[in-house]
Amino acid sequence: MKIDITSEYIKLDQLLKYAEVTSSGGESKIMIQNGEVKVNGEVETRRGKKIFPGDIVEVGGEKIEIQG
């Protein structure tokens, strides 16, 4: 899946909600804190992590490529 963002970056929890991986910020927070999300191949537990164009987020076996 490819996601286009118009800003410089998007926060990880906002991205999951925007990509419709989760239905709420609270659900995003739980997934991130449980270590279910990877950014560029590494587990990320900070929900406020800034995601920039070119980053790849993996969750639930699906890859989300960020484009700007």
TrEMBL record:
GO terms for molecular function: RNA binding. Transmembrane segments: none annotated. It comes from the Bacteria. Signal peptide: none annotated. InterPro entries: RNA-bd_S4-rel_YaaA, S4_RNA-bd_sf. Keywords: RNA-binding. CDD domains: S4. Pfam families: S4_2. This is S4 domain-containing protein. It comes from Peptoclostridium acidaminophilum DSM 3953. The lineage of its organism: Bacteria, Bacillati, Bacillota, Clostridia, Peptostreptococcales.
